[in-house]
Design goal:
- The structure is a homodimer.
- Chain A is α/β, with parallel strands linked by helices.
- In chain A, 40% of the residues lie in helices and 22% in strands.
- Chain A has one domain: Rossmann fold (3-Layer(aba) Sandwich), CATH 3.40.50.
- Chain A contains eleven helices and eleven strands.
- The first copy, chain A, has an eight-stranded mixed sheet, with helices on both faces. A two-stranded antiparallel ribbon of chain A has the order 6-7.
- In chain A, a hairpin with a 7-residue loop joins strand 6 and strand 7.
- In chain A, helix 4 packs across helix 5.
- The longest helix of chain A has 14 residues.
- Chain A is globular, with a radius of gyration of 16 Å.
- The interface between A and B is large, with 37 and 38 residues.
- Strand 11 of chain A pairs antiparallel with strand 11 of chain B, so a sheet runs across the interface.
Chain lengths: 227, 227
Amino acid sequence: MMKIAVLGTGMVGQALAGKLAGLGHEVTVGTRDVAATMARTEPDGMGNAPYSGWATAHPAVTLASFAQAAARAEMLVNATSGEVSMAALEAAGRDNVAGKVLLDVANPLDFSQGFPPSLFVKDTDSLGEQIQAAFPELKVVKSLNTMNAHLMVDPTQLADGAHSVFVSGNDAEAKKTVSGLLESFGHTDVIDLGDITTARATEMLLPIWLRLYGTMGTPMFQFKIVR
Amino acid sequence: MMKIAVLGTGMVGQALAGKLAGLGHEVTVGTRDVAATMARTEPDGMGNAPYSGWATAHPAVTLASFAQAAARAEMLVNATSGEVSMAALEAAGRDNVAGKVLLDVANPLDFSQGFPPSLFVKDTDSLGEQIQAAFPELKVVKSLNTMNAHLMVDPTQLADGAHSVFVSGNDAEAKKTVSGLLESFGHTDVIDLGDITTARATEMLLPIWLRLYGTMGTPMFQFKIVR
């Protein structure tokens, strides 16, 4: 069991924090402003219930500032939206994240031109790489960013889990740690794509994910690599 | 049965022309310079055997200039490399392509910076859209660009064909024509993503396709959308 900080209080952060706590990890959720997060009573822009209600239902999970959450954790999860990921990690503090594994599930979505969003970095660079470059002392592993939050933490909900999840990162040990977590969630087909530059490939899956969501009318689908 | 022009003499053009001819279609392969194509005796830059040998083994398939091939066809297939697709269609001639369905299987790969290639158009535009915009009189349907040439035409080689193929296009009838062709090849899961702007999504699958090719050491894999 690990001490894990989940940065981000939205749907993805809640799903991951809830699952990790359920598996027995000691989970702290990190947020920019604890008082503001707890005071919010309205759904967020994506229609998600406010954090406070979720927190009541998950008493084992602590809420703290980004810095406090990161300081007490052995491992970090970036579940913030891509646009604010870098600011969240800056707020977490360079000393508090140094040497730790960061599971990065964020996508570089740019909603400024409406729906579907475009990507604010792509193809020749990625958010995963940007984070790794800005925080060389972190062991960044990109994963889980190619599926809905429910399927991230409960893959057997769909086709008994017969679908694929990717990992990208420079540190073999860190990828092993993340792969172990993914398997503890129920993922059975973990594909190691290579170093963190391969995060370009999985972040660029978002456009087809978004189009499929539109076509299918549900986010409960998944990529499987048939071979 | 249809009269079909396959533009492009490389591996993808050969695979599609051979399959279509085998199914009884009247196939003409289009090239920039017939004499030069037939005179080539060296493998191309990708290591593919020269066209002349393939042509000998496929006597039912005619070789002609882009313009002649397009003129006699009811339907067109763009199997040129993405960088030269626009030039090939210009050479085919606006009058010769007008009103016809174009199955566009090309990808906007840019090898100028080495391997893996980047995309010369992406995210907010696509090669499919560029072709549709440049030739508004064509009915462009993007498809098959997300898999190896062998699997394009013989999907049951892998997992009995239990994987997915996407179509994008503005014209419903044209998409029906293409979907019918795909089904005649053995594809069973044809997903209509929507209008031609959704070609952005499938062209952006190339980066992960290329990384998976590197990881797996074989191009015989496919995307399946599990739902």
